[in-house]
Amino acid sequence: MSILSLFVVIPVLILLGLWIARNLNQVRGVMVAGSSCLLALSVWLTVAFIQARQSGNTDPMLFTYSVAWFKPLNIAYAVGVDGISVVMLLLSSIIVFTGTFASWQLKPLTKEYFLWFTLLSTGVFGFFICIDMFTMFMFYEVALIPMYLLIGVWGSGNKEYAAMKLTLMLMGGSALLILGILGIYFFNGATTMNVMEIAANNHIPADIQNVFFPFIFIGFGVLGALFPFHTWSPDGHASAPTAVSMLHAGVLMKLGGYGCFRVAMFLLPSAAQELSWIFLILTTISVVYGAFSACVQTDLKYINAYSSVSHCGLVLFALLMMTKTACTGAILQMLSHGLMTALFFALIGMIYGRTHTRDVRKLGGLMKIMPFLSVGYVIAGLANLGLPGFSGFVAEMTIFVGSFENGDTFHRAATIIACTSIVITAVYILRVVGKILYQKVADPHYLELTDATWDERVAVCCLIFCVAGLGLAPLWVSNVIGDAVGPILNVINF
Questions:
Q1: How far is CA 243 from CA 236, 428, 438, in A?
Q2: For residue 4, which of 49, 116, 350, 378 sits 20 to 30 Å off, Cα-Cα?
């Protein structure tokens, strides 16, 4: 069995431990131990992967393992990682670890909440390690299904509507995905579901690729907040509990960009070249529309949700530019946005837990009342608007430089339009920071509120460390990603 299978085995053991746990302290202990093991495993995997590459191992996928699962359709449990998978696993483990501490005080039904939260994380980890299309799809569905209960039971606001809308739209995307996956399988000879084997021996005619590419790209794009299929995202984010928002925006939405690149573009390269201009227009709209929409929101979660639409749109935008620099920037943006938005949602949840409101108009003077949380919010905002020294700057500059490498007028015009999102982002971030942190105290009762507890400080400090670390030392991450992006682009740009 591959070491990668531990990313599925450990969450299953966490589920077993939670089932056995009899009180709140035991539940917390199981979650801390399990999430710590996942974080340690992902760090070890990252180091081992870098060492293997430095020692001269140039295999497309490392730590591979495959065993037949359903032979009539050539479905296998096949796992392996490249540089993209490794950094996505690292991101996922960080979010699960910090999300555990962000949910430390959650009540009621704490045990049940963590059971569904762990099942969601199981699907995420399984998706990133799998290289068999059907097994990837299975883990993809495992990651989506718990969202309905996590929002519908533990959410806030119009949670039933948000849970139903999210589930229906993502299941609609799943229907397109299964059609696209089966189309790739049967039109390539019905001999394998393995992504790497299909890419190496691709016989799908160009006209057939043009039929199934929209199915796959839109199917994953729905999760990646592709315009106009993004409308589930703001409602889902606004109603989800804190740690679910962190995992949802921080990791789950990254499954969309990862799937578009790994499956749609990699396995249907001719269609990617032919149809990319259509989706490039849609992603450009996502980037600008999401930023403008965030400017007019008054709910802190909706502001961050529309910001996520803009930033996740930037991921798909960069992938469709199909240059190595832009695609490397897209993966960096996945990492950066995952960390930033998790930090944002954690802080918003902590502020809401004290003030019982997320309305910008009803908040003010928080810097005086809760300085730790307020400083964390300022740091998250500065990272979001792309201040040098934080991860957002590295990711966005890499994307825009790589996008401008395309010399034609269409791609450069799209790049310039997308660049305007930087200014728009600064507008809504600085407006909110000034309103809720520095204006006069909106309610005298706020003066009685307390600052962050120890568990909240652990979550916030870990995320700030990662956001600043990626911004100050991005080269090693960029090299790991670049080595994986190159072979995929060689297939796409054949």
A1: 13, 24, 27
A2: 116
Q: What is the pLDDT of residue 45?
A: 92
Residues whose CB falls within 8 Å of the CB of residue 44, separated by 6 or more in sequence, listed in order: none
| Cβ contact 350:106 at 8 Å | no
Under 8 Å between Cβ of 378 and 343: no
- As for how many domains the chain has, the answer is 1
Picking from 482, 486, 489, 481, the residue whose alpha carbon sits closest to that of residue 85 is 481
| Cβ-Cβ contacts under 8 Å for 493 (sequence gap 6 or more) | 269, 273, 322
pLDDT (tens digit, 9 = 90+) per residue, 421-438? Answer: 888 888 888 888 888 888
pLDDT score, position 47: 92
What residue type is 262 in one-letter code? R
Mean of the pLDDT values across residues 326-345?
A: 89
Residue-level pLDDT at 478: 87
Interatomic CA distance for residues 191 and 212, integer angstroms: 18
User: For residues 267 and 185, what is the distance between their CA atoms, to the nearest angstrom?
Assistant: 10
3-state SS class at 67: strand
- 421-444: string of b/e by CB count within 10 Å (b at 16+)? bbebbbebbeebbebbbeeeebee
Helices (H), 296-452: 300-321, 324-355, 366-369, 371-384, 391-403, 409-433
* Structural contact between residues 221 and 254, judged by C-beta atoms closer than 8 angstroms: no
Domain span at residue 366 reads 3-492
Q: How high is the pLDDT of residue 171?
A: 86
> Residue 475, Cα to own-chain centre: how many angstroms?
21
Q: What are phi and psi of 248, to 5 degrees?
A: -65, -55
What is the pLDDT of the chain when averaged over all its residues?
86
Contact 348, 104 (CB under 8 A): no
Tokens of 218: 């839109």
Is 265:202 a contact under the CB 8 Å cutoff?
no
| DSSP conformation class of 188 | T
What percentage of the chain has pLDDT greater than the value 90?
A: 14
Is 254 within 8 Å of 127 (Cβ atoms)? no
DSSP bridge pairs for 68:
76
Q: What φ, ψ does residue 136 adopt, rounded to 5°?
A: -60, -45
Helix, strand or coil, per DSSP, at residue 46: helix
CB 474 within 8 A of CB 394: yes
